[in-house]
Amino acid sequence: MKTLKRKTRDFAKRSVCCARRGSAKKGGDLLCRPKPVRFAFIDAWKEEWSVEFLCRIMKVTSRGFRAWRVRPMSQRQRDDMALLAHIREQHRLSLQSYGRPRMTEELQELGLNVGHGRVGRLMRENGIKVIRTQKYKATTDSGHTFNIAPNLLDQDFTTDGPNQKWAGDISYIWTSEGWLYLAVILDLYSRRVIGWAVSNRMKRDLAIRALDMAVALRRPPEGCIHHTDRGSQYCSNEYQRRLSKHGFKVSMSGKGNCYDNSRVETFFKSIKAELIWRNKWDTCRQAEGAIFQYINGFYNPRRRHSSLGGKSPLAFEQKAA
Predict the structure, then answer these.
(1) Nearest alpha-carbon partner for 317 in 169, 164, 109, 184
(2) Residue 312 region, left (φ>0) first, then alpha (ψ -120 to 50), else beta?
(3) Three-state SS sequence of the chain
């Protein structure tokens, strides 16, 4: 009987220790947390183990735990609960992509008087964190005989207005039906996606459709810089004729230098981390619909960028106008 009891207790102790170590990864060992946090842990597990045992592990008294349960909630705690509800909602709306700084900016814009410390504490205590799953991998088909344009951009992504510098690139998405390729054009002034297209083949018409959408939306003035990598889709005669027709200055990255087009690389990293890698795509059409919703429903109108003063691309352009 004693052996069984000892084994049960050892198992319970190991389980609680594992829970404590898991909590440490999310923001610190439970033993280092305030007593209300430890009381809440005991309350959550009191059906599994005795309160006395849990209190010993958490280094609190059972009397203190009982007093905590009957003590009325303070105004600060009620405010934290209301704020936590807002944080959870914004975490969902941001596709789990906002950490403490952007979350604080979002809440302040909603009219909530909160600081970084409080928001960070609530996110940490409730396991609310940014989801990142994989790293970005880029590929470029530069094995062609087309002419290569000079690098006019030279990693200078700054502008003082829209339609001065555009950048484009192509990336890929795996679905159960095979690869789906995504081509985009960004205005470097606001990082807004102004043109995009998808296809199950990485041919030059994919890049052309994204360019045509951007031109139809913006009607850029002559002299706008159009920057891409050295991929055959962008170096093709047909694509270059379109650029010449609309008066673009053509710029291309140096060989094998992903930093020359880092703004578009960053966009692809964002859409993959915040959307693509989190889901299994059964069809290309399903993935295309989700991409449309991400660009037009979140990235352009809502997603905050620290480089834009915490504003979304659309809000940044509207403020400038």
Answers:
(1) 164
(2) beta
(3) CHHHHHHHHHHHHHHHHHHHHHHHHHHCCHHHCCHHHHHHHHHHHCCCCCHHHHHHHHCCCHHHHHHHHHCCCCHHHHHHHHHHHHHHHHHHHCCCCCCHHHHHHHHHHCCCCCCHHHHHHHHHHCCCCCCCCCCCCCCCCCCCCCCCCCCCCCCCCCCCCCCCEEEEEEEEEEECCEEEEEEEEEECCCCEEEEEEEECCCCHHHHHHHHHHHHHHHCCCCCCEEEECCCHHHHCHHHHHHHHHCCCEEEECCCCCHHHHHHHHHHHHHHHHHCHHHCCCCCHHHHHHHHHHHHHHHHCCCCCEHHHCCECHHHHHHHHC
What pTM, to 2 d.p., does this model score?
A: 0.61
Query: Over its length of 321 residues, how does the chain's per-residue pLDDT go in tens digits?
Result: 445 455 455 545 555 555 544 444 443 466 777 777 788 888 888 888 888 888 888 889 988 888 888 877 677 877 887 788 888 888 877 777 788 888 888 888 778 888 989 888 888 888 888 776 554 444 444 444 457 889 999 889 999 999 999 999 999 888 888 889 999 999 999 999 999 999 988 777 899 999 999 999 999 999 999 999 988 889 889 999 999 999 999 999 887 677 788 899 889 988 988 898 888 889 999 999 999 999 999 999 999 988 888 899 999 998 876
State the residue for tokens 């205005």. 187
